[in-house]
Amino acid sequence: MIDGLIAGKVFGDPERRMGKGDKPFVVAKVRAQTSDGETLIVNVITFDDAPMAALLEMREGDAVAIAGSLTPKVWTDKQGNARPALDLVAQRVLTVHPHRSDE
Q1: Per-residue pLDDT for 103 more than 60?
Q2: Residue 46 in contact with residue 67, Cβ under 8 Å?
Q3: In Å, what is the CA distance from 23 to each residue of 28, 50, 54, 102?
Q4: DSSP string, the chain
Q5: For residue 92, what are the contacts with CB-CB under 8 A and spacing of at least 6?
Q6: Rounded to the nearest 5°, which phi and psi values hold at 102?
Q7: Residues near 80 by Cβ (< 8 Å), separated by ≥ 6?
Q8: Which of 19, 45, 73, 78 has the least C-beta neighbours within 10 A?
Q9: What is the pTM of this model?
Q10: Is the pLDDT score of 96 beyond 70?
Q11: Nearest-angstrom CA–CA distance, 87 and 66
């Protein structure tokens, strides 16, 4: 497990879903840029109430920083090129609206 902090912009609107046993969770995607300017997609999921509430208030394009457990991934684009991605299980969500992440 890698503890990480990513910052970027929400890509698409976060979605609330139901898991096994009707346990809610939220998924989102965040666009982050690497130091060399490449765009990286971070697939975010959270099961905790505060991060779920914060993500559900966000919309595409909102700036966000998220802390949690990172897992590096690779996916293949339409041209057959390997591209990096990250999966992140969010534990904390920071936005420009502090009341959102601290409720």
Answers
A1: no
A2: no
A3: 17, 15, 18, 22
A4: -EEEEEEEEE-S--EEEE-GGG-EEEEEEEEEE-TTS-EEEEEEEE-SHHHHHHHHT--TT-EEEEEEEEEEEEEE-TTS-EEEEEEEEEEEEEESSHHHHH-
A5: 50, 51, 66, 67, 68, 101
A6: -105, 0
A7: none
A8: 78
A9: 0.85
A10: yes
A11: 12
Tokens 């293949």, located at residue: 76
Contact 52, 15 (CB under 8 A): no
Q: 11: which residues sit within 8 A by CB, 6+ positions away? A: 29, 30, 31, 41, 60
| End-to-end C-alpha distance for the chain, whole angstroms | 27
Which of 49, 91, 95, 101 is CA-nearest to residue 70? 91
- The residue-averaged pLDDT of 4-27 equals 94
Give the pLDDT score at 75.
85
